[in-house]
Amino acid sequence: MRRALISVSDKTGVVDFANALVERGVEILSTGGTARLLSESELPVVEVSAYTGFPEIMDGRVKTLHPKVHAALLRRPGVDDALMEAHEIRPIDLLVVNLYPFEAVVAQTDCSMEEALANIDIGGVAMLRAAAKNYAAVAAVTAAADYPQVLKELDEQGGLTQVTRRRLAASAFAQTAHYDTAIAQYFMARIADDGSDELPQTLSLQLNRTHTLRYGENPHQRAAFFQSPGVRERSVASAAQLQGKRLSFNNIVDTDTALTCAREFEQPACVIVKHANPCGVAVAGSLLEAYGQAYQTDPTSAFGGIIAVNRPLDAATAAAIVGCQFVEVIIAPSVLDEALVHTAVRKNIRVLAYGPWNDESELGYDFKRVRGGFLVQECDSVLLPPGDGLRPVGRRHPSTSELEDLLFAWKVAKFVKSNAIVYARDGRTLGIGAGQMSRIDSARIGARKAADVGLGLAGSVLASDAFFPFRDAVDHAATAGVKAIIQPGGSVRDEEVIAAADEHGMAMVFAGMRHFRH
Ligand SMILES: NC(=O)c1ncn([C@@H]2O[C@H](COP(=O)(O)O)[C@@H](O)[C@H]2O)c1NC=O
């Protein structure tokens, strides 16, 4: 091994490694910052610009992008020797590169597009690809963890084995692929934000396995949590776990639903989720009150549930939760120390703090796997169509308090699996019918659940995630005491359905959009 080109952004361990190479008679070529560091450590270094005869320009945008570098990496021994000689190209046998930290930079909340662009490495990626393509002649090292192995093989065999070179090449290509995918994903998220009409022609997803889970939905399914790098949005993935067992697959799914639903409300809110459906939701003057009312909707289902709140978890609320029910997860923007005293009594409860909310959104797509591919859609991130708001369609218009309850119920219905029917009054759910194959069944189940816990439906409102195909659910709701209904509208039987509401003296509003959740 005669010559190494070292150009690293993360300079951990590079001085010792370069020193060891020099001791073994290797000449070092290096770029600006790396060369400076090595020189300061009194190592002999040839600056790449001295070798190419071309200065580093444009604040480092162009430093190694030169034929004398790339030909040195791409040379074919025995084929290009004369040409190398003619152009004074000196062979490079070892390339040591790690790239500008694009992912870490864009993960910062205040990262501008300008900063993101400045951190897209071009020269390093080009060199890695060249060296990895020419792995038989050039070893491409991208990780400090590989430095010892390189030195060991140099000592024991005078060079790197083909097996090691191939492994290093595979790793270099994996890194450049990962790097470019992260960049593509960053741009894709911005295209989605720009409201482009079409989804992209290709979608490259870069996901990193961050947690191996004990199992998936069931114990016989292996599973892991793969997270999108560089994501700034607050989520169960970014939340800090303050106590309790590790989150399970189902915990993560349910916590995501609970947290996203809780974030819909301005007032202090509590959402209890069980098996992917809210089973109790309330807003109130305090979290304690909101929790109490959410819990009362369906104490049976709340057992073993996931609780999300949108205010710092205080001691009184924590004590109430721990005293009332078995809970798997509690997630809050933050958790007061006094609250942790109460949750600590049940060591297994997973307590998470998601931090100050931000409106950053990840790649705004939702994925569902089917055999043969993925269905991709935009996330259902709106509540009502822009502008036109709720449209009263019956003879009676809702009162102000009914309107408030209708909006509350509508927000909840968005998170209930279809067919979703939500009964609510005074900022709290009274009964929720979820996931039935017919809307009337969901309406019956929601009403029955309210009755089971003694919550009367007189004067309540009802939200339906999609239109009523028949008037039956409206008739059923009227019998139960419902006074106002919110639904998207759009059924061929809308007239019949509106007439039913009018007959019962109910107010009915059309939301103008539906919120199926499958
Ligand atoms: N522009 C170039 O020609 C170029 N060549 C190498 N780099 C990168 O520059 C970094 C090292 O820079 P320095 O040695 O100046 O600290 C490495 O991450 C390397 O991948 C470049 N920077 C960006 O593309």
TrEMBL record:
Which GO terms of the cellular component aspect does the record hold?
cytosol
> Mind telling me which InterPro entries this protein's record contains?
AICAR_Tfase_dup_dom_sf (IPR024051), Cytidine_deaminase-like (IPR016193), MGS-like_dom (IPR011607), MGS-like_dom_sf (IPR036914), PurH-like (IPR002695)
Provide one Gene Ontology biological process annotation: 'de novo' IMP biosynthetic process
Xref: CDD domains:
IMPCH
Reactions this protein catalyses:
IMP + H2O = 5-formamido-1-(5-phospho-D-ribosyl)imidazole-4-carboxamide; (6R)-10-formyltetrahydrofolate + 5-amino-1-(5-phospho-beta-D-ribosyl)imidazole-4-carboxamide = 5-formamido-1-(5-phospho-D-ribosyl)imidazole-4-carboxamide + (6S)-5,6,7,8-tetrahydrofolate
Instruction: Give the residues annotated as coiled coil.
Output: none
Does Transit peptide count among this protein's keywords? no
Question: Matching Pfam families, A to Z?
Answer: AICARFT_IMPCHas, MGS
Give the signal peptide range: none
Pathway connected to this protein: Purine metabolism; IMP biosynthesis via de novo pathway; 5-formamido-1-(5-phospho-D-ribosyl)imidazole-4-carboxamide from 5-amino-1-(5-phospho-D-ribosyl)imidazole-4-carboxamide (10-formyl THF route): step 1/1; Purine metabolism; IMP biosynthesis via de novo pathway; IMP from 5-formamido-1-(5-phospho-D-ribosyl)imidazole-4-carboxamide: step 1/1
Give the enzyme's EC designation. 2.1.2.3, 3.5.4.10
The similarity comment for this entry is:
Belongs to the PurH family.
Q: Anything noted about its domains?
A: The IMP cyclohydrolase activity resides in the N-terminal region.
Query: What is the protein's name according to its record?
Result: Bifunctional purine biosynthesis protein PurH
